[in-house]
Amino acid sequence: MQQKINEIRSRALEEIKRVSDSRALDELRVRLLGKKGELTGILRSMGQVTAEMRPQIGQWVNEARESIESAIAQAQAEISRREMEKRLESEKLDVTLPVEERSTGSLHPMSLVLEQLLDIFTGMGFEAVEGPEVELDHYNFELMNIPKNHPARDAQDTFYVDDNIVLRTHTSPVQARIMTTRKPPIRIVSFGRVYRADEADATHSPVFHQLEGLVIDENISMGDLKGTLDTFARRLYGEGVTTRFRPSFFPFTEPSAEVDLTCAACRGKGCRICKGTGWIEVLGSGMVNPKVLEMCGIDSHKYSGFAFGMGVERLSNLKFNITDMRNLYENDVRFLKQFRG
Ligand code: PHE
User: How far is the CA of 334 from the centre of ligand 1 (A)?
Assistant: First the structure.
């Protein structure tokens, strides 16, 4: 009996050696150790064996089983290793091959500044509105208290479409459009292109952008204007940047002020960009002229307001250290790619 068991074992170990893939090995395991296997057969026929011999035979069978099981486990490990090697070989990938570059786009510096400006002003409760670039003389000039033959018309170098239609010279006509159609309280900002017949150079372009603000309510004062612009300056350029108001004149505001910001480049110490003054002129502002309020149908005894208008190119040039405004319009990708927020 012992010899028979030994034979079964040696045959099994031979067969296991010849198997080379896991499916075949699985089938072999079932055949050798399963219910229909020869070893199981011997255990089944124990009934015919004397009671003294049973434990001995059981032990032989178990030993054979164990060595077959461990041979199968070893073979399995070997097969897995070879299969893995094969897979690694076939899925090999050369990480040193050059890859095709995928360039992601970037926003134009003007768009980046615009997003930030709108964020700042909507954060303070302003609503962003838009107006037409081809505008009626009526809104661009008349309602802004700039009648025909007013000298301020010359200062604006207007592109006329015809006698009554112009390319807007500033975003202020949006003020008129809002005041004639809404009732106070009003708190809007308006952003967009404006046009003036200027030669293009490092600091001028016949097309540029403005951001206009208008607030109208009861008891609005110059203090509100200053607080709003101080907050704006800090949020755009950081702590320590503040405003300086200088008396000025605009037909649509009274009193009027030009507003300078602390030079963001030198923080007020004086540098080439601010021509040593520590200040940069960025916007015009003032209390809405009561005459404008009345022309637009708002009771100037009950309501007052402030307005401001700023040149956006100036702001983005300061922010990104751009020295020639023409770079913003020439759309050289190598220039534009540098700005990523
Ligand atoms: N519209 C003026 C300009 O283009 C700027 C401005 C706006 C001034 C609002 C005062 C109030 O120069």
Answer: 34
Examine the fold and report which residue of 62, 91, 120 is the final residue of a domain before the chain moves on: 91
* Burial of 81: CB neighbours in 10 Å, binned 0-12, 13-18, 19+: exposed
Residue whose CB lies within 8 A of the most ligand 1 atoms, among 140, 170, 315, for a mutation test: 170
Asked whether residue 158 falls in the same domain as residue 277, the answer is yes
Q: What is the pLDDT of residues 303-324, one digit of tens each?
A: 999 999 999 998 988 888 888 8
Say if residues 174 and 135 touch (Cβ distance below 8 Å): no
| Residue nearest atom 9 in ligand 1 by C-alpha distance | 308
How far apart (Å, rounded) are the C-alpha atoms in residues 250 and 271?
30
Which residue's CA is the closest to the ligand 1 atom numbered 12? 284
Taking the centre of ligand 1 as the mean of its atom positions, its distance from the CA of residue 195, in whole angstroms, is: 14
- Calpha distance 340→338 (Å, rounded): 6
Judgement on whether residues 126 and 240 belong to the same structural domain of the protein: yes
User: pLDDT tens, 29-73?
Assistant: 898 888 888 888 888 888 888 888 888 888 888 998 999 999 999
Task: Clarify whether residues 222 and 259 are in a common domain.
Answer: yes
Tell how far the Cα of 163 is from the centroid of ligand 1, in angstroms. Answer: 23
Return the number of other C-beta atoms located less than 10 Å from residue 226's C-beta. 17
pLDDT of residue 317: 87
pTM: 0.71
- Per residue in 73-84, pLDDT (tens digit) is 999 999 999 989
Output the CA 309–ligand 1 centroid distance in Å: 4
Query: Both 172 and 307 in a single domain?
Result: yes
Residue type at position 242: T
Same domain assignment for residues 166 and 239: yes
Query: Is the pLDDT at 183 greater than 90, yes or no?
Result: yes
Ligand 1 shell residues, CB under 6 Å: 170, 172, 212, 250, 253, 284-286, 307-309
Mutate to test the pocket of ligand 1, among 143, 166, 252, 312 (most ligand atoms within 8 A of CB): 252
pLDDT band at 265 (very low <50, low <70, confident <90, very high): confident
Q: How far is the CA of 109 from the centre of ligand 1 (A)?
A: 23
Residue given tokens 């307001």 in the structure block? 305
